[in-house]
Design brief:
- The structure is a single chain.
- Helices cover about 30% and strands about 10% of the residues.
- It is α+β, with helices and mostly antiparallel strands.
- A two-stranded antiparallel ribbon has the order 1-2.
Length: about 70
């Protein structure tokens, strides 16, 4: 999916795979998010750029995961 809003473009790609549920929770699934923000490195070439992008990636992943889990 590519979304353009003004001069900003967002690219989203979704992958999925089926895995066996955990034995102690046979009726529950797993959802995980992985964000790739490596293309943002050219914006800020400071020494702590990777650390800042890692923090941003974790925050976005947590927000997405919590949003879906809270919908039940």
């Amino acid at each position: 999916v590519i979304v353009d809003i003004g001069d900003t473009s967002v690219y989203c790609q979704i992958f999925s795979s089926l895995v066996s549920p955990q034995p102690d929770r046979p009726n529950e699934g797993i959802i995980m998010f992985n964000l790739d923000l490596s293309h943002l490195k050219h914006v800020s070439e400071t020494n702590n750029c990777n650390e800042k992008l890692g923090i941003l990636r974790n925050r976005i992943s947590n927000i997405l995961e919590k949003s879906l889990k809270d919908t039940k």
